[in-house]
Amino acid sequence: MASKGRPKGSKNKSNVAVEKRLDELGFDVIEFMVKLATNTLPCWLCHGKKNVYVPKNQRRVDEPERQTCPQCEGTGVDCFDNASRVKAASRLMDSVHPKLASKTVERTTRRIVVARLAHLSPEQRAVVEDEIANHPGNDPDSE
Description:
Elements: H1 13-25, H2 29-37, E1 51-53, E2 66-68, H3 82-96, H4 102-116, H5 122-133
Antiparallel strand pairs: 1-2
Helix pairs in contact: 2-3
């Protein structure tokens, strides 16, 4: 019995609409994420020019009409916290390299733990390996 609906792997209507709108606006999501991750995204206020125009009624008489951008403090780039930059880099990595299966990560972690405990005596190492083997998350049948 064939299933109805869109084929596996195809995009739904909402995703297609969003992609079309981004194309119309000339917005490149990957470029934006790279600039965010590398801290080279131009300031939203001065657009990377490092200074902004301040109207006469918003400045003192002795101040110039073009002043250092208060948002980026004259750097020309938006200053994001490290967490935002790491998240952007992580999302980019997810699109380039598929996520590892959680079981693969668990097996790799167990191997690293055992390798790092190599300095223990054979008896101590046997106890640790037994603990790892009997851990509730370790199901050899699921591999």
